[in-house]
Please model this.
Amino acid sequence: MVELILNMKSKSKYILAVPNISDGRRKDVIEKIITPLKIAEKVNLIGFEPEYDFNRTVIYVFGEPEPLKDALIKMAGKAYKFINMEEHEGSHPRIGALDVIPLIPFKNSTLEDCCILAEKIGEELFKNYQVPIYFSGENARNNDRKELSFIRKGQYEGLKKVAHTKERKPDLGPARLHNTFGATIISSSSKLAIAYNVILDSDDLDLAKRIARSVRGPSGGFSTVRAIGVRFPEFDGVVVSINLFDCYSTPIYRIYEFVKQEANRYGVRIKASEIVGPIKLSQLLNSLEYYLSLINFDYSQILETHLSEH
Model:
């Protein structure tokens, strides 16, 4: 990562994209889909996180706007080629082979830059592959569609039955889903969603679901948090799987302590937690400050932060 920071030209714009594809089980297929991101110039693939139970892979990539757009378009073609939504099964909400492409300002770029790029990507995806497009976040055509959950309501199987209606039809393309591609959501936002898993020392899936309901916004928890209770094969214990949409308003330590308190109520301890994918240094530092009760701590005290200045 240090090398990537040093290679960034100070005046160049960089945008972060977090595309999600609906396959987390076939390693060979995932590799083929992400290859365009690996070989593109002025584009850096940070990493990707396949999840077997979700049957979904989250990809983290940044680059200059036009090269990033071209690489994402090529990646989309691979996803549409190798993923058939008629055959897909997984526990994560989804409506398409390439389910969503969120765009977030990264370096020298603005939310407006992301909005413009989102429109371009949506138009080219429809033009090149005739895949229906929904716009979300800052690109949403109405308030309901600002939330991914509204667009994904019913998932692929349910949406294809109502995509012809005025309320649910795509923003680009005919009022139906593609037979195998499904549809793709393009969005822009100023905030990077953080995936955070808390592993409980318990096999009680209902307990994980109860805690998830208590922490997520729509059911009375934190407004910037979404959560589900799941069982992942790779963990010995059930998991409260959380998406944090604003780690400044609702920092990680606060969510960790809340889940810990709820688990303690049932005599269950937390075994571990994990952050999935990249995170900004500043989003970790507020947890450090909290647990160490630091005062007068300054970001510039971290030596590595000075590397980007040279």
Notes: Confidence is low (pLDDT under 50) at residues 1-9.
